[in-house]
Amino acid sequence: MTEVLPSIPGQQVTGSTLYELRRLVGELARTGRPAFPGSQPVSFTRTHTIPELLNEDYFVCEKSDGVRVLILMVLTPNGPQTYFITRKNEYYLAPYTCFPVPNNERFDQFHHKTLIDGELVIDTEPDGRQVRKLLGFDVLCVSGTSCMERTLESRLGYLNDHIIRPFNRMCRRVSPDYARNIPIIAEMKSFQRSYGVPLLYNEVIPKLKHKSDGLIFTSVSAPYSPGTCQKIIKWKPAGENSIDFKLRVIQDPIPQIILMVWHGENKYVDYGSMAMRNEDWLSKFSLIPDLDGRIAEVVYDPKYSPPALWRFMRFRDDKPHGNHVSVVDRIIESIQDNLELDELNQYMPQIRDNWKRRHA
Predict the structure, then answer these.
(1) Where is the mRNA capping enzyme C-terminal domain positioned along the sequence (predicted)?
(2) Is 170 within 8 Å of 104 (Cβ atoms)?
C-alpha cells in the first residue's frame, strides 16, 4: 500500500519575503546560509552504534512516518505569523496558527524569532477522521535566544514549557469556531532513555494513530547540529530500510525504471534498476505522467523481483534531492551490519546498567 504524506498547511511564500525569512532562519540557526538548517540522522550500525549507546547517554523516540518541518514564529506589523519550512526550503504561512508565550493567560503575547523542529503526521481517529498533527522534537531558538548548545533534555523542556504547552492551553480556551480553523494539533514526541526501547514498542508505539517505521536515538549532551549529525542515529528493521532516489525511465526493450543516486549539486549517477514486475508497469507506472526526474522512496526487498533489490514505496515530492551517495553507502552498511529488534533488546540491560553507573 502506498503511504500518503500530510500536506503542508498554508500559502507558499515567494519573492522578497521568502528571501528575508531564509536570511532570518540562517541567523537563528547560526549557519549564516539560507539553506534548510535541520539536523539529519545517520543510519544505525552494530559496529558503530552499540558502543555509542553503551558509553554515552542517549534518548530514544519512535521514528514517525511523516513530513519533516521546521516552524518559525515571528511578530510582524500584521500580527503574529507562523511559517512551516520544508526540506525543499519552501516556506508556508500557516493560517490561524500562532504560538503564545508562557504565563500569558490572555493569549495576547506571542513568540518572536522562535524556531523549532518537528514532523507533520496524519493521525487516524477511531471514527475514521484524519487529523494533521505536529510532533515537536527539538528547538533551536526561543525568543531570539539560541538553545542549540543546551543539552537535549534542556531543549525538550524549553520546547514543552515555552511552546507546546502554551499552544495547547490556548487551543482549549479560544472559541470553538476559531479552534476548528487551526490546521494542526501539537504535542511532544515521547522520549525515553536509550534503554527504553522495549517500553516504546510495548506501550507507546501500539497506541500511536500514525505509522511508525523505526527509532531515533539522540545524544543527550551533543548540541543541535545543522546538517548530518553523527549523534542522531536512525534505526529501522531490515525490511523497513529505504533510500530516496531520482527516477529515470528507459525502454530497453521492455520498460525499466533506473534509480539514480545524488552526488551533490545537480549530479546524479545511475545506481541500478528498481524492482518491478510486469504488472507493476502496466497497472501503475505507465499511467503516471512526468515519472522521469521524480524523487521516490524505495524499500529494501530482495525477494520482490530479483536481482533488483529496491521496491517502490512512494514518491517523495517533499524532498529536493534523493539521498546523497554518502547516505546511501551508510544505509547499505546499516543493512549489512544491522540488528533486528530482538537483538537490539538484548543490549538493553547492559545499556541501562551503564547509564545508571554513570549517574551513580
Answers:
(1) 240-344
(2) no
Q: Give the CATH architecture of domain 11-35+63-213.
A: 2-Layer Sandwich (3.30)
Q: Is the pLDDT of residue 2 over 60?
A: no
Q: Determine contact, residues 188/168, Cβ cutoff 8 Å.
A: no
Reported as a single tens digit per residue, the pLDDT across 330-344 is 899 988 888 999 999
Domain over 240-337 is classified CATH 3.30.160.340: no
User: 337 — phi, psi (to 5°)?
Assistant: -130, 40
What's the pLDDT tens digit per position in 41-60?
999 999 999 999 999 999 99
pTM of the shown model? 0.89
Mean pLDDT over residues 214-234, rounded?
A: 97
pLDDT of residue 4: 61
Q: Annotated catalytic residue: which of 63, 231, 234, 246? A: 63
Q: What does each C-alpha distance from 326 to 211, 329, 349 come to in angstroms?
A: 27, 5, 33
Q: 209 an active-site residue?
A: no
Confidence at residue 3, expressed as pLDDT on a 0 to 100 scale: 54
